[in-house]
Amino acid sequence: MSHTVLVLNGPNLNLLGLREPDVYGTGTLADVEAICRAAAADRGLRVDFRQSNHEGVLIDAVHEARAAHRGIVVNPAGLTHTSVALRDALAAAERPIVEVHLSNIHRREPFRHHSYVSAVADAVICGAGPHGYALALAHLAQLIPQDR
Ligand code: DQA
Predict the structure, then answer these.
(1) Is the pTM of this model over 0.70?
(2) pLDDT tens digits for 48-82?
């Protein structure tokens, strides 16, 4: 049986391709989803791909992952820098977590340099654009315990 992982995207990522293309590129969220599905399939994983502009919806998705998913790739977007509540949900997930950002948040404004999520993530990938999601899934696959 193949395992399912959650790929969770935060606020404004639905606008990828239209939003600040000089920062985030011209690829859409559908392109990111295709990259994720391919990277996951290569490793025998299925993807539950979600995006929400609402903090509580994202937190509910993380709670669901406790029962439904073997690991989490999360781009918390702007909530990276503000949300203790999302961080607390991820800390309680008891699942491997890889945080991903399209842009290199450390080369941007100072308020983006701190992530509430990084301390509860197993790995952080930023600045690799949409390919960062493929890297995140490759690493997540290594962290998921194999069934015997
Ligand atoms: C982002 C970086 C965040 O600082 C920003 O608020 C986003 C996207 C990224 O993928 O580079 O919305 O998470």
Answers:
(1) yes
(2) 999 999 999 999 999 999 999 999 999 999 999 99
Return the CATH architecture of domain 3-143. Answer: 3-Layer(aba) Sandwich (3.40)
Distance of CA 77 from the midpoint of ligand 1 (Å): 4
CA-nearest residue for atom 8, ligand 1, is 77
Check if 131 is active-site. no
What one-character-per-residue DSSP string does 50-83 give?
EE-S-HHHHHHHHHHHHHH-S-EEEE-GGGGGT-
- The ranges assigned to domains in the chain are 3-143
